[in-house]
Amino acid sequence: MDRLIQLLKENARYSIEELAIAVGQSQEEVAESLSTLIDSGTILGFTAITDISKLEGSNTVSALIEVKLTPERGGGFDRLARRIAKFDEVESCMLMSGAYDLCVVISGSSLHSVATFVAEKLSTLDGVISTATHFQLKSYKSNGFLSESESSGDRLAVTP
Q: DSSP string covering 107-144, please?
């Protein structure tokens, strides 16, 4: 992977000066490379990776949905996958190998809102054969970052 991209994945808040030092280029070269990566669509955006469980007042519910589709003649899964990806609730939409065709990750304000999305928006689309929804209970790692600090290592005594 390109060193500049790797550094930005580790910490998107690095300054141009810090990036230039790390990759051994001038600030102008790094700024131009960064601009090219953004303009080409290689870098889609910058975001904060959060631990939702630690945000006060957050009642966000996340779910992974397995979706089976009927492929279209001449287009495969692309048209329907792009249509699903455009829903506001959808955070990620990926074509998969294996038992299902799409992996769709969504967020909602409640279990009911996620269920409503699946029942009223996703399952009713022509070409959707079936769905299986898996609700996120706890996150241990997200986008390469551990969600919780390591425990102290103290273990409870095990008794027979």
A: EESSHHHHHHIIIIIITTSTTEEEEEEEE----SEETT
What pTM was estimated for this model as a whole?
0.76
Host H or E run for residue 94: strand 90-95
Residues of the chain with CATH 3.30.70.920: 56-137
How far lies 12's CA from each of 50, 84, 87, in Å?
A: 14, 28, 27
- Say which CATH topology domain 56-137 has: Alpha-Beta Plaits (3.30.70)
| Positions in the chain whose pLDDT score sits under 70 | 1, 53, 55-57, 149-157, 159-160
pLDDT digits (tens, 9 = 90+) for 58-74: 778 999 999 999 998 88
Q: What is the mean pLDDT of the chain?
A: 89
41 residue type, one letter: G
